[in-house]
Amino acid sequence: MRVKSLEISGFKSFAKKSVFDFGAAITSIVGPNGSGKSNVAEALRFVLGEQSLKSMRGKRTEDLIFNGSKSAERQNRAKVTIIFDNRDRTFPVDFDEVAIAREIHRDASSEYFLNGSSVRLKDVIELLSAVHIGASGHHIISQGEADRILNSSPKDRRAMIEDALGLKVYHWRIAESEKKLVKTEENMRQSESLRREIAPHIKFLKKQVEKVEQARSLRDELTGLYDEYLKREEAYLKHTREAQKIERETLEGELHTTNEELERAEALRGARHTESTEANELLRVRGELGNIRRERDELARKIGRLEGMIEMEERRLNAPVESQDKMISARESESMAQELFTELGYAESSEDYLYIKGVVSRTRTRIGQFLEHLRGDAGVSARSEEARHAIDGLKGEREALVVAQRDLEVKSMQLEAQARELEKALEAKRAETSDAERASFELRSKKQELTLRLSMLRDHAENFAREEVAFREELREGGILVGRTILDYVNFPLDVEQALTESRAEQEARRKKIERTKIRLEDIMGGGSGEEIMREYEEAVARDEFLAKELQDLEASAESLRALMRELEETLNGQFKEGISKINKQFSEFFALMFGGGTASLQVSYEKKRKRSDTDIAEGPDETEGEESEEGIEVSIALPHKKIRGLQMLSGGERALTSIALLFAVSQVNPPPFLVLDETDAALDEANSRKYGDMIENLAKYSQLVVITHNRETMSRAGIIYGVTMGSDAISKLLSIKFDEAAQLAK
To answer: DSSP H helical segments within 36-167, as ranges?
Structure first.
């Protein structure tokens, strides 16, 4: 692989498109100071992806774009394209030519192209790393940088040597592995943190799941109870429904037949109305006879009382009167009061006006006599007269009552004769209709019984309807608690005949057991199904298992990264030591060639540096700091005929020769596809310039060389010379000489 050409447009002083064809092993670029020669090396850095503006002698992106002059307008973009010959497929792309282009604009935007297709900077770097070249590699040595390898610290010198040996990729891989390891460890911490966060929730959910599982066990038990209960209840309801239907139809049929028979029996009792009239007449006569008898008895009692009163009045009239004694004994007073009380009681219960009037008259007379008796003999004669009148009145009342009593006796005998006649007639009628009456009575009794049974059957039907509603409600509640599996009760094995013979108390006991189980289930689940808790628990456990698996994978990945880093470190150290050995061999040869003898070598050094650990920082500033060992590269030289052992004792020319010998030695160990030398021979005298020329001719066998120089000896070794000039317009222009073509033309 080699560089075919470099195209520059708008970059720094190359305002116009300029093309460099690198058709020779050594291409020399010459020109006066300030003409823009070094811009060619910087253009190469630029197109290979250099990001440091300082290394390209700029501060801003605009500094890399042609800024114009008095006679030329400024450019708004800069573009550099490098074309590689890839027929040997050194680049891992299927193209004979690989063109890498970079374009920038004044707004600081940057674009990269690979064979005309837009790509990323990372893609360019990865492509170039395959052939060990890059923007800041050892293959581009700018003016003043030749001595940098000697002036650098041992650590920086080691980095430069590793870059030259192509070991930078290992550092990059180690750095990438470290980043991945840090990211992996961070992910591990996050996973562990997430597991710690969800652990209490999983613990809580586990307790809930235990309740759910207990509820499921109860639900299964409830399902079994429901299966038997519902199957038995369904069989009972079906049997009862059919039995009630048959019984209702039977009773209705019997009632209909009884009504028809009753109508026929009533038709046979045609004389029933007449019998009823005579019976009513008999009842009336007997009632009237009873009234007359009661009235007759009442008259007899009244007559008896009147006779008693007459006798008492007569005894009182004939009794002697004591004129001197005005005192009334208590017995006499009690006797009079008792008589008045009895007489007035009879009057109160009687409905006879004359009798009541007589009682009132006698009571008044008796009280008058009592008062006269209290007043003395003056009213004796008057009282006797009144007593005689009272006796006469009582006798008149008695005679009237006796007459009325005789009339009632006559009327009573008449009514008794009439009642006997009616009884004889009614008995004859009853004898005629006894059979029809008996049949009618029996049918009415049967009708009443059937009606009562139908009424009871309707009551039973209402209770049965409530049982059916309760059955449907149980089905609904069971469906809510145990799901659609409640319908599986239809498949429950049951001996229906045996089930119908058991008492309802046993079925009621099953229902109560179901109710207790339902209450326990509702207490555990609070009315929920638990599916959401199970789903949440399963998700949480799955999340925890995923995190655990992820943590395990991350731990394996971290260990794999650590193993990879150890392997890369071992490979890096092994190849570095091997590379140092090869460099030392070439370095010694080039050094002896440049100085006519002497020795030079690179040696690995270890520098101990103070490093404070986290513990030291926590303990305070006065605590002992830690130490770490840092590897570097020291340059050891011995000049011929001089006792100079250190780099600090070398002159400027000697330092230049030493740095050139070291750079060329490094290039020989891992030859890059091309090597750019920007005035690295500026400090050499004529004799050393020849040695320098011999060295670059030797290097040209392994790498394509682009040499920017003022040295004629160096120019004489080039196959192509590009002259760079600059006029008053401040634009760099190219002139080219191809010595191989010129020699052929001269011949």
So the answer is: 37-47, 121-129, 148-151, 154-164
Q: Is residue 403 part of a domain?
A: no
pLDDT tens column, 215-226: 777 777 777 787
698 φ, ψ (degrees, to nearest 5): -65, -40
Of 129, 151, 171, 163, the C-alpha closest to 579 is 163
Q: What is the pLDDT of residue 624?
A: 45
Give the whole-angstrom CA distance, residue 292 versus residue 314: 33
Q: Which residues in the chain land under pLDDT 50? A: 271, 322-325, 378, 614-615, 617-618, 620-624
Q: Confirm whether 433 is domain-assigned.
A: no
Task: Give the Cα-Cα-Cα angle 589, 590, 591 (nearest 5 degrees).
Answer: 90
Which residue is associated with the tokens 């004129």?
A: 323
Q: Number of structural domains, the chain? A: 1
Query: Which residues does 393 contact at the CB level (< 8 Å), separation at least 6?
Result: 358, 361, 362
Quick check: is 65 in a domain? yes
Range of the domain at 113: 2-139+672-746
Buried b (16+ CB within 10 A) or exposed e, 46-74: bbbbbeeeebbebeebbebbbbeeeeeee
Q: Compute the distance between CA of residue 382 and CA of residue 362 in angstroms, rounded to an integer.
A: 15
- pTM: predicted TM-score of the whole model, two decimal places: 0.50
Answer yes or no: is 113 within a domain.
yes
Task: Give the position of tokens 């590699």.
Answer: 137
- The answer to whether the beta carbons of residues 656 and 683 sit under 8 Å apart is yes
Distance CA 235, CA 499 (A): 8
